[in-house]
Amino acid sequence: MGNPQPAYRQWAPCIAGGQCVKRNAPLVAMLFASLLALGTAAADAPGIQALWATFDDQGKPTGYVRISLHGEEYVGVVERGLPGDTKDRRCEACPGSMRDKNLLGLKILSGVHRHGESYIGGHIVDPFNGKEYRVRLTPSADGTRLTVRGFIGLEIFGRTQTWVREMK
């Protein structure tokens, strides 16, 4: 029957002569177009860098947080409170070095990185009760709302708030 060629020799003409690429050019073009479309879709997805009106778990307004990109991580800082809030309001329940800091200008969100259409990997502090949570941020398709999921351990053990992008 003859000696069968080793596997590498069967592919050698394809690699050396480029016949595989020529034969599969339509497939290669479709693959390239798909990867390009995925990159464009991710670039077109609404970002989270904005001023967000924040709401508690019952939907009551609580203030405004500005999310911005610092280096490679997203951070959120309390930019302003609600009418009637005092400017010297302190974060009395906050942990560690955040305790008794002025609420305005306080960084409550840190260490967040983009992962697909969500933003994960960081922490958020609830300045009203001082609890710190891991966080997942997911913008709505139109970019007007931000789902903020704070959790301890697994995501099922947490709470969700919806923030609204300030358009002013």
What features would you describe in this structure?
Helix content is 21%, strand content 38%. It has an 8-stranded antiparallel barrel. It is an alpha+beta fold and 168 residues long. The chain has 3 helices and 8 strands, in the order H-H-H-E-E-E-E-E-E-E-E. Residues 7-15 and 27-44 have low confidence and may be disordered. Strand 2 (61-70) and strand 3 form a beta hairpin. The chain has 2 domains: 7-44; 50-165, Lipocalin (Beta Barrel), CATH 2.40.128. The termini are far apart.
Short précis:
With 168 residues, this protein is an alpha+beta fold. It has helices at 7-17, 19-23, 25-44; strands spanning 50-55, 61-70, 73-80, 107-115, 118-125, 132-139, 145-151, 158-165.
Order of helices and strands: HHHEEEEEEEE
CATH class membership of the largest domain = Mainly Beta
Number of domains: 2
Would you identify the regions where 5 or more consecutive residues have pLDDT less than 50? 7-15, 27-44
What's the main sheet like? 8 strands, antiparallel, barrel
Shape: globular
SS-based class: alpha+beta
Under the CATH scheme, which architecture of the largest domain would be assigned? Beta Barrel
Q: Helical stretch count?
A: 3
Annotation, overall tally of beta strands? 8
Say what oligomer this is.
Answer: single chain
Strand order of the largest sheet: 1-2-3-4-5-6-7-8
State Rg.
25 Å
Distance between the termini: 80 Å
Average pLDDT works out at 80
What CATH calls the topology of the largest domain is: Lipocalin
Q: Specify the helix fraction band.
A: 10-25%
Strand content: 35-45%
